[in-house]
Amino acid sequence: MYMGVIRRLSYERGHKLETQVVETKEEVIKKEKLWNLNFLLLWQGQLVSALGDVVYEIALGFWVLQKTGSTALMGALMASAAIPRLIISPFAGVWVDRLNRRNILVVTDAIRGLLVVLIGIAAITGHAEVWMVFAVAVISGACAAFFNPAVESALPDLVDNSKLMKANSVFSMLYSGSSIVGNPIGGFIYQTFGAPLMFLFNGISYLFSAATEVFIKIPKIVRPSEELHFMDDMKEGYTFIWRFRGLRDLILTGALLNLFTNMGMVLFLPLFQKTPELGPAKYGIVMGALTAGMLIGMFITTVVDIPNKKKLSILLTSCFVFTGFMAIFPLTNSIMLMMALLLVGGIANSLLNTIIAVSFQLCVPQNMRGKVFALMQTVNRGLSPIGLALGGILAEFLNIRYVISGAFFATFIVFIFFSMMKNPKALISFDPEKQALEDIM
Predict the structure, then answer these.
(1) Does the model's pTM come out above 0.70?
(2) Rounded distance between C-alpha atoms, residue 402 and residue 394, angstroms
(3) Domains with residue ranges and CATH for the chain
(4) pLDDT confidence of 47, banded at 50, 70, 90?
(5) How confident is the model over 169-187, as pLDDT tens digits?
């Protein structure tokens, strides 16, 4: 059998991490094409389940409100899915690195599918209760804590490094497009068929995704003969992150940016609602411009090959354009200017997010990806509620326009400091074809 890839990584004196990634000759050839069979199977499975999720969320919101009349319960339901994911993610990331990632995808999708199908059947027969929905939300959140890092960890193994930018953009377009298409479709289906059948549809979509994922082939990791204890494995993964200064600084910077961005964006709707010259109708139009910009940015990265040596300059330009335009946006009442600012800001946001995602995937060894991506999600999700709450509190005492503008101005300042940090910039510019990972650690 042809042994395609052997990767080795050393960091810090006396500390060595060794991983072998074994690929057949056929797998190496397949990876050279973006739309190879493995990538296509993962993509189409995600497309079906993502559409199902959008439809399910619409049905769930209406069903809970109809059943209880309580918006507080609706918020609690959302938290019941988010909290277990936040708590479990650091531990789940270790298992993602220790187990067969394809099996994780199949099992977690199958569990979610089976549970949601049962909720659909219970709703159709009139036996569904609110506690059942909460229980499914908790279990689904726990499954997502395993599933999401597994997808991100597997993606670099399904396509060549040169195709990672396009692969990430294609997946981003999938999720954004599902939201755009799924919302109007979901509303129509709810009016026509009601929530129970929508529950059933989402459950079937998960089961379909699980069935197609069975056929995905992800290269195996040959580990050292002495397997680490679970907690030692977790500790080694986090030690790797901490000692990899560029990676650590990028994660912490991203978390800080996420805090300020959420603080500003949570106030977009109240800004339009409380400004007579704007209003809800114009809010939809302006937000549509932001979504369109993000889709354009994703499309650009699917058709244009960005060289590694250009990634840093494009990232920094996108960072300053995004934060600068978003800081100016709330200071005007001109709808045309707002649309233009958010359109360009959306394009810049897509570019910077895609470049950062690819940089993580290129610089993190295969047997560390689960832990790294899980920790990154935990840190970002942990600060998001703080940003949302802080934005709402400040808007009670200060002019809402200035709070939004100030939040994005703060992100602009963070990016200025980021542009002067040597280690994260080296990580962004990393070219695995020309550099060894040790060179940037």
Answers:
(1) yes
(2) 10
(3) 8-222 (1.20.1250.20), 234-440 (1.20.1250.20)
(4) confident
(5) 888 777 777 767 666 677 7
